[in-house]
Amino acid sequence: MLVQCKTLPQTAVNPLLEEAKGPSIAIAVLCIVLVALTLRPGIVSIGPLLPAIIQELGLSYIQAALLTSIPTLLMGALAIPAPWLAHRFGRDRVILAALLVLGASIGLRTLVGSIGQLFFATAGVGAGIAIAGTLLSGYVKARFPTKVAIFMGLYTTSIALGSTLAAASTGPLAEAAENWRWAAGFWVLPVALAIGAWLFIERNGRQKRASGALSVAPRLPLRNPTAWLIALFFACNNLVFYAMIAWLAPIYIELGNTPTAAGMILAGYTLGFMVATPLFGFISRNEDRRIVLAVSAGIALLGSLAIAVAPNTLPMLWVPLAAFGTGGAFTLAMTLPLDNASTPEEAGAWSAFVMLPSYIVAAVGPLLVGFLRDLGDSFHLSLWVLVVIGAVMLLVTPFLKPNRNNKVLISP
User: Fold this and answer.
1) Mean per-residue pLDDT for 4-11?
2) What is each CA distance from 254 to 185, 249, 311, 390, in whole angstroms?
3) Computed from CA positions of residues 390, 134, 149, 246, in that sequence, does the dihedral angle turn out positive or negative?
4) Which of 368, 373, 294, 296 lies closest to 329 in space, CA to CA?
5) The Major facilitator superfamily (MFS) profile domain covers which part of the protein (predicted)?
6) How far apart are CA 55 and CA 144, in angstroms?
7) In angstroms, what CA-CA distances link 344 with 137, 168, 182, 309?
């Protein structure tokens, strides 16, 4: 009688067991949440501040779009070296270094006096987010190997919560301070808290590495068609998300809303995103997530279509609805690489590979919207382009069945 079972490579078993002996679940969850909260405010907080930054530094719309596109591009480009850095220096130490870069870059952005300096600081923000975000999913896979979807839902919910807080409070902070720099610099504070939390994780991990066996450096799934399909789905979702994050507030300011009101609409987007992330992580219990993926993509498409048709009609309904679908798709897309991996190291390689094309394509979103806005006199065409991209995302979902190659046949 032949029976299928899953086996882990022999060299990967000991590291996985070592991870299971790490900090308590409560401490691990707290540290994941504190780090994840810092992974979007450095980008999202710029949206409500764009009109003031454009006016002070004389940016064009396409230059302003680079303030979102540069971090997004780096989130893809630096995902590839992240697993190697983790293998060479230790995952937790590299995450800690990335958080230090992130905090320093957010602080530097408050001091810039030219467009070049602004772009340099923005690149630092992107670099910190890229490395920390890529490697943190590997930590989730290692610490909670049997409950990946649930804890990835918690991870992405924390990311969305950070986005929502930044979207809702940055505008009022800027108005209260009468200065966009103070509002942008405020987001150094949660990064400092995350650094303190992750320092504990890094010290704990350092002790285990001293006595643990070395693992083999992971390989990227370059020849796996499932990896490319996941990357395409994730790319479409991220393109729409970052285009909305960059331009939703300016769109509604241009439609006659105050910066604070436009910031609240943006907060409605990030709130809808945040509500969806744990929900879709919880309801998606099977590794074949195609039905739930299609539901999330369909909801996102419906919301985007309504915004494109009548952006000023019930924005606090359609904007959060679009975000709800996007948030659900984001959680599931972050989980898909882990579904196809057997070890934390392999999960990091899959995540890195998926993030490279995904975030590079996503970086085009803000630039494309800014370019189309420079060409015309409204954001109308840009919104319809995002609808088309959402339709492509929905069409990909039937092909996202996990492709496991780590199964063997044994005979009792």
Assistant:
1) 42
2) 25, 9, 11, 24
3) negative
4) 296
5) 26-405
6) 47
7) 9, 35, 39, 44
Length of the chain: 412
Structure tokens that stand for 117 in this block? 């300096």
Separation of alpha carbons 398 and 180, rounded Å: 45
Q: What tokens does 4 get?
A: 């299928």
Q: What average pLDDT does range 368-393 have in this prediction?
A: 89
| Contact yes or no for 281/156 (Cβ under 8 A) | yes
Give me the pLDDT at residue 121, please. 95
Q: What is the C-alpha to C-alpha distance for residues 236 and 215, in angstroms, rounded to an integer?
A: 34
- Residue 215: its pLDDT value, please? 54
- Rounded to 5 degrees, what are φ and ψ at 3? -130, 135
Give the pTM. 0.73
- Tell how many helices (H) and how many strands (E) occur in the chain: 17, 2
> Which phi and psi (to 5°) does residue 221 adopt?
-80, 60
> What pLDDT digit, counting tens, does each position of 59-86 carry?
888 888 888 888 888 888 888 888 888 8
Amino acid, single-letter form, for residue 234: F
Lowest mean pLDDT among 182-196, 247-261, 304-318, 377-391: 247-261
Taking only the tens place, the pLDDT of each residue in 156-168 is: 889 888 988 888 8
Neighbouring C-beta atoms of residue 376, cutoff 10 Å: 11
Q: In angstroms, rounded to a whole number, what is the distance separating the alpha carbons of residues 390 and 400?
A: 16
Rounded Cα distance between 332 and 310, Å, is 29
CA distances from 2 to 342, 403, 406, 408 (A): 22, 21, 16, 10
CATH number, span 11-405: 1.20.1250.20
Q: Are 370 and 65 in contact (CB under 8 A)?
A: yes
* C-alpha dihedral (376, 261, 39, 328), degrees to nearest 10: -80
Around 25, how many Cα atoms within 13 Å sit in the side-chain half-sphere? Answer: 5
Q: Which residues contact 10 (CB under 8 A, 6 or more apart)?
A: none
How confident is the prediction for the chain on average, in pLDDT?
83
> In the prediction, which pLDDT does 6 show?
44
Give dist(CA 143, CA 139) in Å, integer: 6
The tokens for 340 are 């196809």
Cβ atoms of 108 and 214 closer than 8 Å: no
Q: How many beta carbons lie within 10 A of that of residue 206, not counting itself?
A: 12
CA distance 72 to 122: 10
Q: Which two tokens stand for residue 12?
A: 């990967």
